[in-house]
Structures are given as C-alpha cells and as structure tokens.
Amino acid sequence: MVKLYGKNLSRAEAEALSGSLGHAAGVRLMTLGDGLERGIRMLEFRSGSGLRFTVLVDRAMDIADCEHNGRAIGWHSPAGFRHPGLHDYEGEGGLGWMRSFSGLMITCGLDHILFMAESATPEYVYGPRRTAKHSLHGRAGTIPARLTGYGETWEGDSCTLWAEGVVTQGTVFGEHLELHRRIEVAVGSDEIRLSDRVVNRGFYDTPHMFCYHINVGHPVLEEGARYLGPIRDVVWAAHAEAYERQGVGYRTMPAPQMGFHEQVWQHEMATDADGRVPVALVNDRLGLGFMVTTRKDQFPCMYEWQNLQAGQYALGIEPSSNHVLGNGAARERGELIRLKHGEERRYDTAFTVLPDAGAIAAAEARIGAIAAQPEADYPAPSGTFLPIAGRS
Predict the structure, then answer these.
(1) Dihedral sign (CA 263, 266, 270, 275)
(2) Contact 221, 76 (CB under 8 A)
(3) SS (H, E, C) 107-125
(4) What was the pLDDT predicted at 196?
(5) pLDDT per residue as tens digits for the range 213-226
(6) Of 116, 122, 237, 340, which one has the fewest beta carbons inside 10 Å?
C-alpha cells in the first residue's frame, strides 16, 4: 500500500484518483537555468508525504535541497550549487572545494578525503608523477554523473521512486574508479535510501577513501537543537587545546555566532544488533529532526562538524571510511583500502526525516538503547583511534 494524504491506498485506488501519480508524488528531470547553477541537470523527488528533495546529476548525484511540508532540512551555503565547469579543484592551495560546498549531502572521495595531502604513487608506474597531490575532500563531488535511469516502479501495491547513475573518476597513469549510485524513496514515506558501490575499473591497485558530508541547516538547526548518537567514546576534537573557549559543546547547539571557528569531533559509535549506527539532529521546539543511519562495517568512523558562524550556519553528520587523522595516517596504520581490478566497496545509508515529536522520541529511544551518550558537553577526548577491521 501507498500512504497519501492520510489514507492507505492500493495501486488501483491511487490510480483512480488522478491521471498520473505525479499530482502527489514522482521524480522528474529538469535543468537549472541561471547564475552559478546554469546548465546543471537536477532530479526532483516528491514522496507524497511532504518530503521533497533534489539530486544534482551533474554533481555526483548528490542531494541538494531537502524539505518536509515546507520546512527546510538541508543546508544552503554562500557558495551555492555551482556548476562543475566553474570548479577549480586544485585552487586556493587545495581549498577550492569550499567554493562548491553546499547542500544536504556532498560525496567526498573516491581516493582521498579530509585535508590536503601528498602521497606516493608507485602503484601507477609513472616516473614523471611520483606523488599525487590531493585537495580537500577529493574530486568526486564535482564530477557529473552518467544518468542511467530514473522513474517509478510498482511492486504490487507499493511504489518506489528511484534514480541511478555512474560517476567516473579516472586519469591516465592513475586511478580509474566508478561510483554506482542508486537513490530510492517509497511513495508515502519520509526516508531516502542511498546505495553506493565504488568499483575499481582500472588495473592498478588503487587507494580508496570515502565520506559523506551531510549538512543540516535551519530550521532543524537552531538554538537548543540536540545532537543524538550512540556515542561510546569521544575520540578527538579539533579544538581540544582550547576546548571550552567558544562555549559550544557537542550536544546542544547555540544560535548563529559571530567569529566562530569550525569545530570537528570524532565519536566512536556503538551499533545495534544489525550493525547499524543511527545519528540525529533534533529540534524539540518545532518537533522536527533528521536522522542518518549507516553500517559500522562500511563506515567505521563518524565525525560531527559544527559550522555555527552567522550566515554559514550548519551541523554536519559525517560517516567516514577512515579516522579523522587523514590519508597519511591511514597508510601508516595499514587502514587505507586498496582495490584491485573489479573489487568494490558498498555503502548503504538511510536519511530519515523525523516529522513530529513522536518520531523524535522514537529515534531518541532507539539511539539510547544502543548506548547512552556522554552527558557532559565537553567530554575529555580519549585519543583512542581503534584499529579499523572487519570491513564489508
């Protein structure tokens, strides 16, 4: 059954109500036509529950806008949804990525994440380039996808909206990686399902790192919004040397700040019986929240990003394939994934809107049943980066 406007409907009942499901739910392709966005292909999804989100085909099929019954979920930065043709990956000493950084979700990878790094590349057997210079968070997020399909699929009385595409990151004498992405939402639901496969199509043993920069903005983020996670340990904080200087802990968010310097935390998360990690930002005043659910064997690490500067106001939930220590440490610790020809890694993630107080309470109970997060706003970082093992 599909649920539309408070009623459970069979396929025949839903089709009797209109000449097209599109009056209530659907996915359609359009092209943006002005400013920095001009020329970007975009898919608009409407689930029929009040959930609407957009997928930028020409930016790695990342999720840009997201809202529920007119209430915004995703973050919009001053950079806007910049056309990839305007992007300078190596610009500003590797920080050019910031000029294309906006939206609910940005893909980081496919062979590098986190801060700028230079790594040896003997695997590519090319003398003139003995090292690779990596800019912030890698190349993937501004590569256009090849759109392989989209639409609606009925199975009995259930209907799924979906889109699929392939993002290719390749070069001569270097990596040849593909990101195969499928995005789904069931008609009548408040949950986006993201299924990714990163495949090595080349014949070099190729490094692979992966992260989602999931950015929640106003009004979910406002003064008093709460971060919820099954935190077993606070491993690291970027600002540990001046832990309380800005007066912002990990749990409760303030109003927009002036002169705020970003804060990043790495939390060691516990899992439920199925190996899943749910993390949420909730706004009790509005009765609105957003939850991200990942698999620990796919994303063993989780960061919390606080950019609470006025005009830039965002909270990031960042599941990652590696510790925040970065590319060099991943190599030194033997934790860098290397893919041989045809090998792949899967990532299965759910984004769930929590549309009311009841949904928030259920999510909080689910998370709390896995592990009780620290009650202190400034728990002392342990510095214990557990070895990463057991990847799927």
Answers:
(1) positive
(2) no
(3) EECCCCCCCCEEEECHHHC
(4) 98
(5) 999 999 999 999 99
(6) 122
How many residues can be counted in the chain?
Answer: 392
Amino acid symbol at 193: R
Task: Indicate the pTM of the whole model.
Answer: 0.97
With CA atoms as reference, report the closest residue to 167 among 139, 133, 208, 207.
139
pLDDT, average across residues 359-375: 97
Tokens of 40: 């970007």
* Residue 38, both tokens: 């001009």
- How open is the CA angle 313-315-321, to the nearest 5 degrees? 140
Could you give the percent of the chain with pLDDT greater than 70?
A: 99
Q: Any bridge partners for residue 159, and if so which? A: 154
What the chain holds in terms of domains, given with CATH numbers, is 2-370 (2.70.98.10)
Please tell me the distance from the alpha carbon of residue 210 to that of residue 208, in angstroms, as a whole number: 7
Calculate the CA 195 to chain-centre distance: 12
Q: Is the alpha carbon torsion for 264, 371, 251, 348 positive or negative?
A: positive
